[in-house]
Amino acid sequence: MATRKSNGGRFAVVVDGKTVGTVNTYAAKTAYRQVVFTRALGITITTHKVQLRILSGSTPGRSTVALDAVMVTR
């Protein structure tokens, strides 16, 4: 979950070294606790490495990423 707001930036979601999505947290009006990304990793229980990487080159003044929560379920 993340906050979307006027200075919101972008980040990439990387799973096991591969980028699986890009999230833009910009919004004209601030909105808290927004689900911004979901991904099913399969039905087999195994270990994964998950990274969130802030993307450079965002629009000037839109470089903030505010995460409210990260949830992983089986």
Keywords:
74 residues, mainly beta, 3-stranded antiparallel sheet, 0% helix, globular
Helix and strand topology:
Elements: E1 2-4, E2 10-15, E3 18-24, E4 31-34, E5 50-54, E6 66-67
Provide an overview of this structure.
The protein has 74 residues and is an all-beta fold. Helices cover 0% and strands 36% of the residues. It contains no helices and six strands. It has strands at residues 2-4, 10-15, 18-24, 31-34, 50-54, 66-67. The strands form two sheets. The protein has a three-stranded antiparallel β-sheet with strand order 4-1-6, with no helix packed on it. It has a three-stranded antiparallel β-sheet with strand order 3-2-5, with no helix packed on it. It is globular and about 40 Å long. The two termini are 18 Å apart.
Looking at the structure, what is the overall shape?
globular
| Distance between the first and last residues' Cα | 18 Å
Question: Which parts are unreliable, with pLDDT below 50 for 5 consecutive residues or more?
Answer: none
How many strands appear in the DSSP assignment?
6
Beta-strand share of residues? 35-45%
Helix content: under 10%
Structural class: mainly beta
Major sheet, described briefly? 3 strands, antiparallel
Strand order of the largest sheet: 4-1-6
C-alpha Rg (nearest Å): 13 Å
- In N-to-C order, the SSE pattern is EEEEEE
Q: What count of helical segments does DSSP give? A: 0
Give the overall average pLDDT.
Answer: 88
